[in-house]
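Exercise 7. Given the components listed, write out the predicted structure of the assembled complex. Treat all entries as one system.
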Amino acid sequence: VTGDEGFSAEVIRQLDLLVAGTDHGDPGLAAAMRRELGERLAEGRPLRVYQGFDPTSPHVHLGHGVGLSKLALFQELGHDVTFLIGDFTARIGDPTGRSATRPALTTEEIAANAQTYADQAFRIMDRARTRIAWNSEWLADMRLADVVRLASSMTLAQVLVREDFRKRLDDGAPIHLHEFLYALLQGEDAAHLGTDVQVGGTDQLFNILAGREVMKARGLRPQVVLTCPLLVGTDGRQKMSKSHGNDIGIAIDPKDMYGKVMSLPDDAMADYWRLASGLPPGEVDEAVRATDSGAWHPRDAKMRLARRIVLRWHGADAAAAAEAAFVQQFQRREVPDDVAPLPVPAGAASLVDLLMATGIPKSRSEARRLVEGGGVSLDGTRLDDAAALPELPDGAVLKVGKRHFFRLAR
Amino acid sequence: VTGDEGFSAEVIRQLDLLVAGTDHGDPGLAAAMRRELGERLAEGRPLRVYQGFDPTSPHVHLGHGVGLSKLALFQELGHDVTFLIGDFTARIGDPTGRSATRPALTTEEIAANAQTYADQAFRIMDRARTRIAWNSEWLADMRLADVVRLASSMTLAQVLVREDFRKRLDDGAPIHLHEFLYALLQGEDAAHLGTDVQVGGTDQLFNILAGREVMKARGLRPQVVLTCPLLVGTDGRQKMSKSHGNDIGIAIDPKDMYGKVMSLPDDAMADYWRLASGLPPGEVDEAVRATDSGAWHPRDAKMRLARRIVLRWHGADAAAAAEAAFVQQFQRREVPDDVAPLPVPAGAASLVDLLMATGIPKSRSEARRLVEGGGVSLDGTRLDDAAALPELPDGAVLKVGKRHFFRLAR
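Answer.
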């Protein structure tokens, strides 16, 4: 990569892993950030990395997982990670009272949310090597004179670079002045922590860059910015968010997580491989290629993705169980609505006896061949022994061949 | 006046005095402020009135005097006046370091400036009935959470109504975000003081209106705004300011004050009558009429104005002395540069003897008539006694008739 001149192979290896999947909106900025990150990695010390988290909700979903994965990667590479709880603003909420999604929370609510949040994050991060910080620690005692100095480090024009501010100003929608302060406070966090790198979503790019300005105004070396794209939700269109109802929570039942990934539109898969699989860049590229080329059947590809994501957050056993459950449920879903009832013959002593009662096989040998060929299942579970009579729950669905279904009735 | 419906004669009398000479830029705002002020006056209690002063300089000039006069008037009408020293921002200065005129001052410098400032203000205000407040008292301890709430009470659009902000944004000139805070802090002052009325210059209109927004956001009754036009300086064009070198300081020598008023362009006189004379509206109108109609000779009109202004700040004796000194100096200024020397005749025993030596009067009786007609003066002082010989200082200028000057030489 041009710009990597003078870096060691190890620095380049780390760079490739760390910047994979990041998005800075602007190739110039991306190149500058890669260079700056490389320069710090070249110093051979553990970098101080942080991401801020909004503790207004305890809910962590795969969208949050994108940043958490990046933090976990930094940890794997030996760097120091701070998990910054933005409790200060959560305590204030939205002073204008306009936003129902920004209620003011009590210290106890915030602490409980943060604990739940961190517990979820530690499914992939290293608990022992994560520092947790609360920004109220330095923000709550900030005096007006400090705030004035902080505010003086940015201009209105710099703030209006932020797309949503500019758009709201142009549209005549109100921008309350404290919103500018909120951006600056992220800068105060960065300056206070003296970080090397801040990780965040692309929607935080402006705030993270504001941190660079604040650090420069303090005579500090400005932090490297690593922004990750926002993951789309299960609708494949909007960014993942609990309020959009398109989220995949990481603490939900593994079977539900698997099923939700399976419900993704096909064209969202590449993004999920890149942002949610936690695989290294090479394996991600391979999976995306196999999916796009059709080398993997779309349903198989999605099952691999789902299994990988469940494995990441819940472990291999849970992933295998979730897949088995999905397969079973999926096959049950194939059952047509109007299934013919099949009274179980009183004298049936084997599966073949049962099959003969359906009228589908022409002969007992055809019935045996059907079973041996895997063409018979009960409630989605394949039946292999033609000579034995399986357990026959009332209402269970017997599938014979590809298209014949019967609901058992005793 | 429409809008005065329901007010008593006393309320209307006070209103007429108090709103005289104010300017709100917008007739609708002016009418609303008059109505609101009337409603408070109708409550029959002493109103709480304040003006803020920037203690970065101890220098008070007639431009500051406009607001001080309004405060003095409130006091005369029985209201409570607070003289608010803006020491908080003076201590911070301009954190961007761009403005040489906004140095950060020490507490001692600020206190000394404020003391000097107040001493000058008390030439026209009632010291015993003036409360002095320092805004650092409530601003210095303000925490970030309070600042966030304060900032949430205004929107960017409201701030950009301020002409200079809008212009700077459009021109691409930097507006640092703390400048917004400074406007809001004036609102915090108003809310803290719980004032009925804030007085200020028209250049402060935005900040004072911001105070109304802050008060509304706190559930307080918003203060009445009374803004006074800015007095032009001695150049008759730019607003009076020490940095423009066009100011008339109120602590300068009364003779200099008189002379500076005399140096005003004729077309600035009406403004000075209105804003700097301290006269009630009826007398101001009369003076402006007499000046404009030519009923008063322009120089006489200006002398009346100068005398009135010196009287206001330095008292009647100083005003009379300043006028006499001006007249003398003015007449001396009429003396041409190349005055003919007049050796005093050795045997001269009377003014007539002296005048005959000039060669101007054709006869002793013409000389006597000249004296009796007021046509003879020495160093600007008229000589009345033709028969006596006045004291004749070496170098004094003798004026004979309208155009003849002689410098006495012994």
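Discussion: Chain A touches chain B at residues 88-89, 91-92, 94-96, 139-149, 151-157, 159, 165, 169, 172, 174-178, 180-182, 184-185 (CB under 8 Å). Residues 11 and 44 of chain A are 9 Å apart (CA to CA).
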